[in-house]
Structure formats: structure tokens, C-alpha cells
Write a sequence for this structure.
């Protein structure tokens, strides 16, 4: 479910807004969303409800919208952390951005997303993610979750 | 200590499952029996049975939306928290649950 071309490492960005713009444009180029502004708006509405930073310098902004063509997950690692939430003063340098649409036709994607979410609560997984510096290592680590799903024969 | 709970967030794709993992991990660390139902984008999973609810010392509802079957917990000790808190501070949520149980002994 994780795609190599949706992993971005060593990116320089200065704010949450510019991050949302940056990723949304990439998603649009890859035909995963049909409307950059609409998707950014959905992300911001979600953040306003409750910031998606989860500690450990990780955030998981997500949006549910009909402008999402098919569910996706983006992983992006920044060179320098950005301030995510003023209130809790939390900084973020690793971002998992998730998109789903209102038609849950394929639960396989959703299952993958829920497994990523669960994995993020695991200390060892986060540490491995932190020390993965190459695209290859990062992809392999995130892809392991796909393999686990296959082993459980749910795919 | 036996703990059951339900997690649910507005979009049901991330916090629901992270809160579940956080609460499970914290309970296991303390040697508690735990089962957490998720009400997310894939519907209700890991559903609590009547027996599990009956035997539980306390119910944790880490929810930001109205959940299905809230009436199952009508006669139980219930701790309600924000789903985000169960993700970032599961240890505090479990501490609160223990306090609730002790103050009702």
C-alpha cells in the first residue's frame, strides 16, 4: 500500500501550511487528488478540531474528502522540525499524511492505514523509522506492514 | 484489574487505532487484562462481548464522537476521555481509570 514515490526524505519546509501545500501538489501531480485547495482545506479543518501531532515529533494529518481519488499514505521527513501546535508547543519532523474518500470500497487500504497507526505506537518501530535514512530502508520498513497483512491472509 | 474500552475518532482512520494500541500497551505493561473495541472507518472491530463487559472493573471510552451501543455500559463504571489523550498519554488515562475504580470500592 505504501508507494516508494510517496516517500519524501530530507525536505526543507518552514511551516505546517507550506507542508500541506507541498504534499498536496505532489498528490495532485500523481492523480491521487483532484483538487489541491479542497484537500488542504480538509486537512486544516481536521487540524483545527484537534492537532494531529502524536508526540515523538510525529504528526499524522489526514483528510476524508471526495477529492481523494484512492486512499493513500505519504511519509515525509523534514531536515528541520517545524512547530505543529502552538498550544502544546509540539515540534514535528516526521509526517504521515493520510487521505481517504467517502467511498470505503476497498478495506485493504484502510486496514493498512490502521496497521501503520498501530505500528506508530510501538517504540521499536519508531526507532527503526527514525534511523532509516535512505529511501530504500524507509520503504522496506513501511512495506513490512504490507507483508504482515499478506501473512494474515487478509489481502 | 480487567479493563475494556472503546476508541473512536471523527475520521476513524488513525487516532482510533493508535488509542487502542496505546491503551493495550499500557495495560499489558501493568499486567492488566484488556480488550479495546475500535469503531472506525472499517466499522466495529474487536467487539466486546456481554461477558467481557460484565467482568470488567472499568470501561474506558476514548471517543470524540457518539458511539454505537453506548447503552451496553449503562451499569458500569465509565471513564470518558478525549481520544487524543489516549494516544499521547495512555499512562495518565490508565491512572485515572484505576483511581475511579478505587474511589468506588
Amino acid at each position: 500500500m505504501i508507494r516508494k514515490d510517496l516517500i519524501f526524505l530530507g525536505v526543507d519546509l518552514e511551516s505546517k501550511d507550506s507542508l500541506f501545500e507541498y504534499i498536496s501538489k505532489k498528490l495532485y501531480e500523481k492523480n491521487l487528488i483532484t483538487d489541491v485547495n479542497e484537500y488542504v482545506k480538509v486537512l486544516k479543518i481536521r487540524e483545527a478540531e484537534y492537532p494531529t501531532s502524536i508526540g515523538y515529533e510525529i504528526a499524522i494529518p489526514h483528510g476524508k474528502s471526495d477529492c481523494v481519488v484512492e486512499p493513500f499514505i505519504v511519509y515525509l521527513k523534514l531536515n528541520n522540525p517545524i512547530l505543529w501546535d502552538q498550544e502544546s508547543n509540539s515540534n514535528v519532523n516526521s509526517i504521515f499524511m493520510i487521505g481517504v474518500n467517502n467511498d470505503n470500497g476497498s478495506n485493504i487500504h484502510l486496514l493498512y492505514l490502521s496497521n501503520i497507526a498501530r505500528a506508530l505506537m510501538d517504540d521499536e518501530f519508531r526507532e527503526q523509522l527514525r534511523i532509516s535514512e535512505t529511501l530504500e530502508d524507509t520503504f522496506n520498513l513501511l512495506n513490512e506492514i504490507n507483508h504482515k497483512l499478506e501473512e494474515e491472509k487478509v489481502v | 484489574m480487567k479493563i475494556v474500552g472503546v476508541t473512536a475518532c471523527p475520521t476513524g482512520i488513525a487516532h482510533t487505532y493508535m488509542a487502542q494500541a496505546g491503551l493495550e500497551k499500557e495495560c499489558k505493561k501493568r499486567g492488566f487484562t484488556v480488550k479495546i473495541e475500535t469503531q472506525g472507518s472499517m466499522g466495529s472491530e474487536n467487539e466486546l462481548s456481554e461477558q467481557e463487559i460484565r467482568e470488567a472493573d472499568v470501561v474506558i471510552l476514548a471517543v470524540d464522537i457518539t458511539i454505537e451501543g453506548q447503552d451496553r455500559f449503562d451499569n458500569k463504571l465509565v471513564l470518558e476521555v478525549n481520544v487524543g489523550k489516549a494516544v499521547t498519554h495512555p499512562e495518565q488515562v490508565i491512572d485515572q481509570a484505576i483511581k475511579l475504580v478505587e474511589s468506588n470500592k
User: Anything to note?
Assistant: The two ends of chain B are 13 Å apart (CA to CA).
